[in-house]
Design brief:
With 573 residues, the protein is α/β, with parallel strands linked by helices. 47% of the residues lie in helices and 14% in strands. The chain has a five-stranded parallel β-sheet with strand order 3-2-1-13-14, sandwiched between helices. Strands 5-4-9-10 form a four-stranded antiparallel β-sheet. The radius of gyration is 27 Å and the shape is elongated.
């Protein structure tokens, strides 16, 4: 089986993330990782908190904490939420780690040796009120392209255009709010992306036909506009230091690398963190996943569209310029925005439902299923409480949860606490087996293609097939004239429950585990379901003890809907 390296965009350290951030990177990466593991592949799923840069310093200042202490606390808080969502990272690291410092500095030295870094004197915004140069994100103002009045000096959150602070209209300090800004000369390191343009174009051309149209079009747009040399250092107190053995003057001035230089390198750094954290007696080879791994590893990245340029153009340029055989991404799974009633979720403006709030309301599986079933793949998708409650009630409570409950409860009431024997399967069971095998193949095909909405639709169809079978056989009527036939129907339905438990695990892991625990099988080592097993539906034999689990999914009421809208706001229109 193939080795699969999977990374999702690093969540920034300044606060708990919203649902849009979850569905745009970490959650689909987790669903795909779980699926691949079940199919027998070797998988390494790596993520980390992105801890350097201006917002970390500003957030720490607001809380009155040293920035390193703030980041440590925020990392633990984020990790707790991701644990609550059952994200099965192999390792969740930190971009401030010593491993990332070492590898980032190594990359910088190599780029410099190969002629792709240049020291330049530039004119940068200085705030007399703050007594310091202002890095890009310390400058706010109006975007010259779209008119958004809260654009940052590095990128406009609204239109995603990359900016320089001097591009902003009516700029102001993000620290003090002062508009008394000056432009002074300072020195910084520049990555000479213009010299790597042709190599990046050739590399993108080899991959873009396989990538989703969203990822390839963004990469191509950046390349068509031309790659510009960009400063990769900043005047900050917190970041990966410029190595003094290569740039002693800049190191003495306290320069650190720009967060967008060291953050993608943290994918490698976090993998080394994973290796270094191996328990006693276990050896983990981090380098085999990243170095000279083109023929042995398939690397898939998950991210929202605002991160695509950095991962399809800028980081590949960095890796190419290092002139070492570091693994570059094979497939970029890019997502559009999940909106909140048509408006953007926003961490900075606290608009929308945030992941910790979501877990306070309902268990993770409710959110996991809804978000993936409505993932913003081909275009933006909108979160509304009306849509959420309707999806939960129809798909989870009625289609899956009700099927599990009524099959097990009815069988326990009429046949006791063991799976009933019944007769030999007939025409209805044969037809069901063929349909289940067909739908399972469709589900597998969509998961392999990373088409998550279509995969969710195929999974939903699998659940619906069980209900159709149950309605056709109607064991509550069948038992009045044919107890053997009713027992067969229920045994077949119980085998469907076990099949659902196995194949639904990537989407709803906790509920799948509960379904699986309902049956006291002597050996239940199934990681997936073969076509033959889907057709025969015999994995849970007669005589197997079972229990009726608690209700898997509670139906949401009109009162629940109104409470959610009152707490979080409904349609802003």
């Amino acid at each position: 089986m193939a080795r699969h390296l999977i990374t999702s965009a690093l969540p920034y350290i300044n606060g708990i993330k919203h649902l849009g951030n979850m569905v745009g990177s970490m959650l689909p990466a987790d669903v795909y990782s779980r699926y691949l593991r079940q199919r027998g592949h070797e998988v390494l799923y790596i993520c980390a908190t992105d801890e350097h840069g201006t917002p970390a310093e500003l957030a720490a200042k607001e809380q009155g904490l040293p920035v390193d202490e703030f980041c440590a606390q925020a990392h633990d808080a984020q990790k707790a939420v991701y644990d609550g969502f059952a994200l099965a990272f192999d390792y969740f690291g930190r971009s401030s780690s010593l491993q990332n410092v070492d590898i980032t500095q190594h990359f910088a030295r190599r780029l410099n040796k190969n002629g792709f870094i240049e020291e330049r004197a530039i004119r940068q915004v200085y705030s007399p009120a703050d007594g310091r140069f202002l890095p890009d994100r310390y400058v706010e103002g109006t975007c010259p392209h779209c008119g958004y009045d809260k654009a940052r000096g590095d990128q406009c959150e609204n239109c995603t255009r990359v900016l320089d602070p001097t591009d902003l209209i009516n700029p102001r300090s993000a620290i003090s709010g002062s508009t008394d800004l000056e432009v002074r000369e300072t020195k910084h390191l520049f990555l000479l992306q213009s010299k790597l343009q042709h190599e990046v174009e050739e590399w993108v051309a080899r991959h873009e036909d396989e990538w989703p149209q969203l990822a390839s079009s963004i990469a191509r747009k950046w390349l068509n506009e031309g790659l510009h040399d960009r400063a990769i250092t900043r005047d900050l107190d917190w970041g990966v230091p410029v190595p003094a053995d290569t740039w002693p003057e800049l190191a003495a001035e306290g320069k650190v690398f720009y967060v967008w230089f060291d953050a993608p390198i943290e994918y490698i750094g976090a993998t080394k963190e994973w290796a270094d954290a191996a328990p006693a007696g276990e050896t983990r080879d981090w380098k085999s996943w990243w170095y000279e791994a083109d023929d042995t590893v398939r690397y898939t990245e998950f991210m929202a569209k605002d991160n695509v340029p950095f991962h399809t153009v800028m980081f590949p340029a960095t890796e190419l310029g290092v002139r070492e055989p570091w693994k570059k991404v094979d497939y970029v799974k890019a997502f559009n925005w999940l909106t909140y009633y048509g408006g953007k979720f926003s961490t900075s403006q606290r608009r929308g439902v945030f992941t910790d709030q979501a877990l306070d309301i309902l268990p993770a599986d409710y959110w996991r299923y809804f978000l993936i079933a409505n993932a913003p793949e081909s275009d933006d998708s909108s979160f509304t409480w009306e849509h959420f409650t309707a999806t939960v009630n129809k798909d989870l409570a009625d289609t899956l949860g009700n099927f599990v409950n009524r099959v097990l409860s009815f069988s326990k009431k009429r046949f006791g606490e063991d799976v009933p024997e019944g007769g030999e399967p007939g025409e209805a069971e044969a037809k069901l087996g063929v349909e289940i095998a067909r739908l399972l193949a469709e589900y597998e095909e969509q998961m392999e293609a990373l088409q998550f909405r279509k995969a969710a639709a195929a999974l939903r169809a699998l659940w619906s097939a069980g209900n159709s079978y149950l309605e056709e056989k109607a064991p509550w009527l069948e038992i009045k004239t044919n107890q053997v036939g009713a027992a067969l129907t229920l045994r077949t339905a119980m085998n469907l429950i076990h099949l659902y438990a196995v194949v639904s695990e990537p989407f709803i892991p906790s509920s799948s585990a509960a379904m699986r625990r309902a049956f006291s099988l002597k050996e239940d080592t199934a990681t997936w379901v073969t076509e033959a097993e889907a057709k025969s539906l015999t994995s849970v034999p007669a005589g197997t003890p079972f229990t009726v689990p608690p209700v898997l999914f509670a139906k949401l009421t009109d009162e629940d809907l109104e409470n959610y809208k009152e707490r979080f706001g409904g349609d802003p229109a």
